[in-house]
Amino acid sequence: KMLSSSKVLRRSHRAFAASAATMARPASAGALRAIRTAAFASPQSAVAHRRAVGGVGAVRMMATDANAPYKNIIVERKEEEKVLIITLNRPKALNALNSGLMSELIDALEKADANPQVSCIVLTGGDKAFAAGADIKEMASKSFIDCYKENFAATWQAVSRTRKPIVAAVNGFCLGGGCEVAMMADIMYAGDNAKFAQPEITLGTIPGAGGTQRLVRQIGKSRAMELCLTGEMMGADEALRLGLVSKVFPAAETIPEAIKTAGKIASMSQMSVEMCKEAINQSYETGLQQGLVHESRAFWSTFATKDQKEGMGAFVEKRKPDFKDC
To answer: Is 286 helix (H, G, I), strand (E, B) or coil?
Structure first.
């Protein structure tokens, strides 16, 4: 059941004080108490995570400092599919998005863009929360000057500028900044337990990382306005009906299905994939006629590639294409 604004506010404040989890609390008070306290705190649980994402062939990728892994995310690569899996990993805080996590996420995405062994990215969180929002403890005391000088939250838009496709696999709470980051992905899958919201209004502020802009474009003005002005949650089925997500799966299947789709995308010509992503995103940024011009030029440019000749030649010869990304 959806919570009233006042209940969201009261419960949110208790959650912030208890665990730095952000933005809202579930309708069932017992749900938060059941959250895992350390999903990847031990080698054994890390192994379990790798198995969950198909991990026999998964390889942990390290941060810039080769002697230390990322602290707030888990990054793994399925070599045979050229798929990178990024898992937000602050389970005690419901994956609240602090500056450390976002810096690591952007760093991992930039490295993925530059890595020829990565063709598609899966972005996911925990069973109970994809991300419960921005870290309130970190930003509560900020002033306008702090936000302006830091370009606070605006730097998160780097996620949306990743050239390679991102498939978001959302289970549990996807609230506030978490919902905004998920909307930066190119495809979003949801588990049947997913809950979406922009409850910043209950904290005396507004969405600041795209919530007032992308949500309107994806689900329409009226429902976006209602969610942003009341702080109410929206379930997975409604998110599917309104077009916020592409598909809904049982929660245990969300990540495997996202990896499957990412693998299929990764099997295509990567130049064509990136051109197609760019052309579709242009539809958000330009008018129809400008978008059609961009599409035509991108379409024509594929005829300068060997992959176009291979793809069409394979179709004529009734065989599977062997794309070389050139």
So the answer is: coil
Task: Give the angle 144-145-147 at the CA atoms, nearest 5°.
Answer: 65
Name the residue type at position 45: S
Helix (H) / strand (E) containing 222: helix 221-230
Residue 312: how many CB atoms within 10 A of its CB? 12
Which amino acid appears at position 217 of this protein?
R
DSSP string, 73-134: EEEEEETTTTEEEEEE--GGGTT-B-HHHHHHHHHHHHHHHH-TT--EEEEE--SSEEE--B
Are 198 and 228 spatial neighbours (Cβ–Cβ below 8 Å)?
yes
CA atoms of 122 and 107, how far apart (whole Å) = 15
Helices 270-285 & 288-301 angle (0-180, nearest 10): 170
Tell me the per-residue pLDDT of 177-222, one tens digit each, with 9 for 90 and over.
999 999 999 999 999 999 999 999 999 999 999 999 999 999 999 9
- Measure the CA–CA gap between 125 and 324, rounded to whole angstroms: 32
Distance spanning both ends of the chain, measured CA to CA: 51
The half-sphere exposure of 56 on its side-chain side, counting CA atoms within 13 A, is 1
- Rg, C-alpha atoms of the chain: 20
95: tokens are 């994956």
**How confident is the model at residue 58, as a pLDDT?**
45
Instruction: Return the pLDDT at 29.
Output: 35
- In angstroms, the CA 114 to CA 112 distance is 5
H/E element, 247: strand 247-249
Q: Which residues of the chain have pLDDT under 70?
A: 1-68
Specify whether the CB–CB gap between 180 and 156 falls below 8 A.
yes
Active site residues: 134, 177, 180, 200
